[in-house]
Specification:
It contains four helices and six strands, in the order H-H-H-E-E-H-E-E-E-E. By secondary structure, the protein is an alpha+beta fold. The chain starts with a helix and ends in a 17-residue tail after the last strand.
Length: about 160
């Protein structure tokens, strides 16, 4: 077989055996995009976007144990809270149902009031739910401080295909 035919055969084999995107893949991608948009909105203090991303029944449990509703969280911006950095990494998504996805990961953020900034190194668990309009919204968030003596979360096995 000559080189062009061999290359064509390899490309066709790759195209045939490559798994197509699934609804689960699309949902995870949408949640990851929503998480990224949430971080950008927090840094920009964009209350309109945050108001759309956060579910009306949001419960946000901070690493201090303090809990906030959506209204209280948005009000913290009116009271002067600002973020200058919001970076997630080591993200792991788990599809619970077609309309509920959990997201675990690491979060590096800098926030404060009146120019008094503090860095936080957190791990988090977020629960995202698809709304009636099809948009993904954050319904629950739990953060925990990641200390030097606390190991990073283990990488779980890949979820079974649904």
């Amino acid at each position: 077989m000559n080189a062009p035919k061999l290359l064509l055969a390899v490309l066709l084999l790759f195209a045939i055996t490559r798994a197509p995107a699934t609804p689960t893949d699309d949902a995870i991608a949408a949640v990851l995009a929503a998480e990224k948009a949430r971080g950008a909105a927090m840094v920009a203090s964009d209350m309109k976007t945050l108001g759309q991303i956060l579910a009306d029944d949001l419960i946000y449990t901070h690493s201090t144990g303090m809990q906030e509703t959506k209204a209280a969280h948005l009000d913290s911006y009116a009271q002067g809270l600002r973020y200058t950095r919001f970076e997630t990494s080591a993200l792991q998504a788990n599809v619970i149902t077609p309309d509920v996805i959990t997201l675990n990961g690491h979060l590096e953020q800098t926030k404060g009031r009146e120019g008094k900034w503090k860095d936080f190194h957190l791990i988090f668990l977020a629960v995202w739910r698809r709304s009636a309009t099809g948009a993904w919204q954050l319904v629950s968030l739990q953060t925990s401080l990641q200390t030097a003596n606390r190991p990073a979360p283990a990488t779980p096995p890949a979820p079974a295909a649904q």
